[in-house]
Amino acid sequence: MTPILSPQGLAGLVFLGCVAMTIAGAVVATNAGRLIRAVTGLALCLVGVAGIYYFLDSPFVALMQILIYAGAVCVTIVFAVMLAEPHELKRIGKIHALAGPASILAAAVLTWGLAALAVKTAWQPAACRANNGAVEEVGQSMLTTYSMSFELISVVLLIAIIGSLVLARAGRSK
Amino acid sequence: MSVHPDVARVIGYVVGTIAFVALNASFLVWLERKVAGHIQRRIGPKEVGPFGIFQSLADGIKLMSKQLIVPEGADGLLFRLAPLLVMIPAVMVYVVIPFGPALVARDINMGILVIFAFASINVLGLLLGGWGSNNKYAVISATRAVSQNVAYEIPMLLTVVTLVMITHTMSLNQIVAQQPTIKDWYLFPWNGSIMLPIGFLIFFICSMAETNRAPFDLGEAESELVAGFHTEYAGMGFGLFFLGEYSNVFVGCALASIMFLGGWQCPFGLYPGVHWMLIKTYFLVFVVMWVRWTYPRTTLYGLLNLSWKVLIPFALLNLLVTAALLKVF
Fold this sequence. Notes:
By secondary structure, chain A is mainly alpha-helical. Chain A is 75% helix and 0% strand.
């Protein structure tokens, strides 16, 4: 057994911490009674996932995960909740009797499918990957190989901005 | 039992960073009160220790001995979580700041990105604190802080992107290494782009706004909002918000001195080291305080207009001109 006070031991501890953060965050996000607590759980979960990316040798993806998801998406959600819903959201209606077992079944199938996919796929060994996700490589493939998807994403964002402007204008004239 | 050198290094940096954050904050509180005093023709704190330098330690002990009260109707969990969410990222960013050629906890090649990634969590702490307090002033203040942070993050990141285009690296230590003497500072227009001084100005204004400092402290406008998002916090809960703010001020100024003023390099090429980093950073901190006690608070619309109508267009122009210059030359 590796002693805890060694580099590997500490790394293992931090890894377990990230996994625990991801799971705890996900549980809070799905079970919290208050919307704003659920968002906090989501933020925790996303930071945990970022930690796992870091362990997979992709610091760029990990940092982008924190910057975009925890720093921007979660803040936007909290902001929207604060503006739109001053009081806590009440749980709507009764849950169907079959909902619990059905969701457990669905989760089990999904987990099994993902696990099978992870085990069965012939993954490329780490050495063959493009320079461990360095910024230059990411930038170059974004503007060459994936330029179509990159442009499409910006069009989607543009439509979202125009849509929100249209909604905001309609609200102002009321 | 012998401890592995890497483990000893980790423990050393963790203890050192936390000690530095706390000491830095207590020093800056004292400095702020002294600067404010002298600007207003007072003398500031003078009773505790020589020149009152131990005043903030006394204040810290007072804050720690106070009870942390959770107001009725507040969301207890989020209320207690918010100061931590402000404090943890504020400490995390010190991991990549190069204080000296070898004095950096982890010199990863995306240092700038680490700082901005963790700094962006800070807002979440303010939001949750404001919301969790169950206080209308706190909620108004939190919404203000967020709209301000979102608005000023854009020109700030655009300026940083422009600088990274010139330096070709995001490693803070390499950026410092590229500026050995005063004529190589990225502050000056002959080092890559004629827009660099404007970039520095935009970055400095944005870092003041991002840390909610006056004249941009709309989030805690005392005359309208009692004390903003930390209205309901007592004792060390308030203390942590304060520590986080001063630590962020230091990080903003440290980043400005690393990116534009050559960090730990001596301007004249003599004895580079941690002292130059501290001299440059604390000089910028002093400028931030000087601005705070000289200019009155802006209005919310003035603040947002400044960002969206002045800083963002100039930052975009900066980006375009720099890109064109880099392409041509």
